[in-house]
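Escalated from tier 1: iron/sulfur cluster holo job.
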Amino acid sequence: MKEIEKLKETILKEYPRLSGDSTFSFRCHKDVPCFNDCCGDVNIFLTPYDVIRLRKKLGITSGEFLRKYTISPFDDNLKYPVVLLQMQDNEKKTCPFVGKNGCGVYADRPWACRMYPLGLASPGENSAELDKEFFFLIKEYFCKGFGENKNWTVNEWMTDQGIEEYNKMGEHFKELTLHKYFRDGHNLPPKKIEMFFMASYDIDRFREFIFESSFFEKFDVDDATKEKIKTDDTELMKFAHKWLLFALFNKKTIAVRDNVLQAKQKELTDKDELKKK
Ligand code: SF4
Ligand code: SF4
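Tier 2 regenerated the structure:
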């Protein structure tokens, strides 16, 4: 993870910053001599929406997907959980989804794969003075796509790659990961990291957690929302993000039932009374 932090720093300091209207020349197709070379030995961070799309494509549960295809590195500096696609244990450390015809999950490929050769940096995450996202070009030495004669603006590339839907689905997650709590330099304690991981990435376990516990006795969730989140992964993902904002940062994104609030209030008053005695 330290290498990734270092790379982030270099990007913020040294990489030319691109806007939506900036242009670049690039084309990737089956006949380039480097075909598939970029799908190995690479750090691909997954978003919760990436996991939802991929596990659905593969027809497996979120838990199975996370166990089989991802790693979640943990170190003392970790602010919140991160999930990376696990490369295979072979000479080229290839992505588990790459085959001789290219990406085997192309229609559901992750956000980072769609963006390539563009990257997106958020200076606000690391620096107090700069608070504006920018795009940058990832120019791998082996990638021949830059020598091809096809011009794009950054915005055109993102439309072509279907990024808009992924960005929309990622807004809530972004709100969480760019929260002031983290920007002020705090890290979540391990138990809350586990909670964050379950609600963000392990969507089936989160569904089990809310439907098979006393969750709805504590939180006031209307029937229409309950029906939707029972079966719709993206609706559940949005609900999970709201719940995390409430549970981690006390944001009033979920209504607590009156009787639960009253019981809590009574508990606090009783405690105060005891202290006075
Ligand atoms: S290395 Fe570049 S040109 Fe080659 S397959 Fe990957 S993206 Fe395409
Ligand atoms: S998910 Fe697809 S595009 Fe992304 S690294 Fe794997 S094979 Fe390549």
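The mean pLDDT is 91.
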